[in-house]
Amino acid sequence: MGRGIKHWVRPGIRQLSAYAVPNATGLIKLDAMENPYHWPEPLVEQWLATLRDVHLNRYPDPGSRQLIDTLRKVMDVPDSAAVLLGNGSDELIQIIAMTLAGPSRLIVAPEPGFVMYKMIATFVGMEYLGVPLEKDFSLDLSAMLKVIKQHQPAVIFLAYPNNPTGNLFDEQEICRIIEVSPGLVVLDEAYHAFAEASFMERLPEFDNLLVMRTVSKLGLAGLRLGLLAGAPAWIREFDKVRLPYNINTLTQVSADFALQHHEVLEAQTARIRADREKLMNDLHSIPGITVYPSQANFILFRVSAGEGNRVFQGLLEQGILIKNLSNSGGALRDCLRMTVGAPRENQVFLDALLNLTAKT
Questions:
Q1: What are 228-239's pLDDT values in tens digits?
Q2: pLDDT given at position 16
Q3: CB-side exposure of 200: number of CA atoms within 13 Å?
Q4: Residue 203 CB neighbours (<10 A)
Q5: Are both 350 and 283 inside the same structural domain?
Q6: What average pLDDT does the chain have?
Q7: Is the domain of 150 the same as that of 19?
Q8: What is the CATH number of the domain that holds 252?
Q9: Looking at 261, 291, 315, which one is the last position of a domain?
Q10: What is the distance between the alpha carbons of residues 135 and 150, in angstroms, rounded to a whole number?
Q11: 218-273 pLDDT per residue, tens
Q12: Would you say the pTM of this structure is higher than 0.85?
């Protein structure tokens, strides 16, 4: 009889919980930072016509050459930078970690932050160190510098804007971190379209800086496409770890088509930014709610002490799914995060939240 799970599965993996995605069937879905808008019908028809010429019996272009050319133009990638594509940003984070993994190698990120940095560190057997943010969710620069000096991390991930807090870290503090870091610094710009701030154009200034993007928040979440840009020498090493044909043909063709019509996506993101500001103003007017500044397509807010789970469940019972961060504890206790949806969805959410908080 063979040895069981406890013998073969690493303890670090056994202690993890799988990344949970709740069933949103029949609900107003405001939990996953998705663009709520589809394309105009004529554009859908053009896209479908493009797909008719796709040969699914052949493997995809292994280098995604046409798509990379389009992405370089739309995302203003500097000519001196190379580009690597991943099956979403998650795969790119994993490729970076796998390439840099080794005895006593460390990943550092601010906390609260994107949960996949810590999870992927565990997947590849690297140590992970989270550096707490300040009470207003800004960087604790002195703590970051101390960790860098003491632990010499292989890679630092900085989400810009940060997830789940929504704020942009100070640009000069980020530059300081890049300058003193012995390893790589990855700026995760998943929400750049809503922040209108980026380090992409500054890539040539720093040989240890990488910028990561995704098309998910632009309205293409179903395609699972991420981009990593940086010095060609680094990208060549990461490309060795990338699995062959990781970007399938339908994703390549569909993303290229959508980005050729990026003005449609940009109009949608502009509408979401405007709706975000209205939502924030409306949330500020609700008693007992603390609203945190956001430069993303979501808003983090805190309800009255001890009310986080009750408010989340009350919204769910009214058919509204948002993200419950309250159980994370610490800085996120009683915090909830809602994605900016379509105007009707936003209003239903606000009405339900006002009703629930009035009962506290």
A1: 999 999 999 999
A2: 84
A3: 23
A4: 21
A5: yes
A6: 95
A7: no
A8: 3.40.640.10
A9: 261
A10: 24
A11: 999 999 999 999 999 999 999 999 999 999 999 999 999 999 999 999 999 999 99
A12: yes
The total of other beta-carbon atoms located within 10 Å of residue 285's CB is 10
Tokens of 96: 């970076």
C-alpha–C-alpha distance, residues 345 and 350, integer Å = 9
Average pLDDT score over residue span 121-132? 96
Q: State the virtual CA torsion across 230, 234, 236, 241 in degrees, nearest 10.
A: -110
Tell me: do 287 and 232 sit in the same domain: no
Q: What tokens does 259 get? A: 């980005």
Rounded Cα distance between 33 and 29, Å, is 9
Domain end: 243, 261, 279, which one? 261
CATH number, domain with residue 313:
3.90.1150.10
Which residues form the domain of 161? 57-261
Q: Report yes or no on 202 lying in a domain.
A: yes
Residue 142 and residue 16 share a domain: no
- Among residues 98, 63, 91, 35, which one has the least CA distance to residue 226? 91
Examine the domain organization and report whether 249 and 285 are in the same domain: no
Nearest to 360 by CA among 318, 312, 304, 316: 304
Q: Which residues, 6+ apart, have CB-to-CB distance to 346 below 8 Å? A: 275, 278, 279, 340
CA-closest candidate to residue 20, choices 107, 119, 158, 113: 119
Spatial CA neighbour of 195 closest among 292, 265, 75, 295:
295
> How, if at all, do strands 82-86 and 28-29 pair?
unpaired
DSSP states along 174-187: HHHHHHH-SSEEEE
DSSP codes of every residue in 293-334:
--SSSEEEEE-STT-HHHHHHHHHHTTEE-EE-GGG-GGGTT
73 has a pLDDT exceeding 60? yes
Average pLDDT over residues 17-25: 84
Q: Are residues 280 and 236 in the same domain?
A: no
Is 47 among the domain residues?
no
Alpha helices (H) along the chain: 5-8, 11-14, 41-51, 65-74, 88-100, 115-123, 141-151, 171-180, 192-195, 232-241, 249-260, 262-284, 308-317, 343-357
